[in-house]
Design brief:
The protein has about 120 residues and is mostly helical. It contains 5 helices and 3 strands; from the N terminus they run βααββααα.
Length: about 120
């Protein structure tokens, strides 16, 4: 016995589009497509949401990354300068992209270093 996307969405209290996405990603066991319609087994369970909804779910990962960072300290002068330069380039590139600039990341880096870019007309 099978149900459709609408019934599954109502049963699991999630949007129909999300149910279709879960079916397409193969996350609902036994679901299959028949033409344009998804058939979902009546007893299928709602897949768990992989996103973090609570702070305590992500805290162990943050602590692990902090330990990794601490193990690499102190940074040498060269490492520190390189990281600052990379940050400035990425920050400038993303800020300008938001404003509609079409320069690539590499071109942005070149401009920050004082090189100019010729435009093609």
């Amino acid at each position: 016995m099978y149900i459709g996307v609408k019934e599954a969405a109502s049963k699991w209290n999630i949007p129909e589009r999300r149910v279709r996405t879960l079916c397409a990603e193969g996350k609902i066991e036994g679901a299959f497509r028949e033409g344009r319609i998804w058939r979902i087994p009546v007893g299928a369970t709602k897949p768990t949401d992989g996103r973090y909804k609570k702070a305590d779910a992500i805290i162990p990962q943050i602590e692990e990354k902090l330990e990794k960072l601490k193990s690499r300290r102190p940074l040498t002068q060269g490492e520190s300068e390189r990281l600052n330069e990379e940050f400035l380039t990425e920050f400038t590139y993303n800020s300008n992209a938001i404003e509609g600039n079409t320069l690539t990341l590499r071109e942005t880096d070149m401009v920050l270093k004082g090189l100019t870019i010729a435009q093609n007309h």
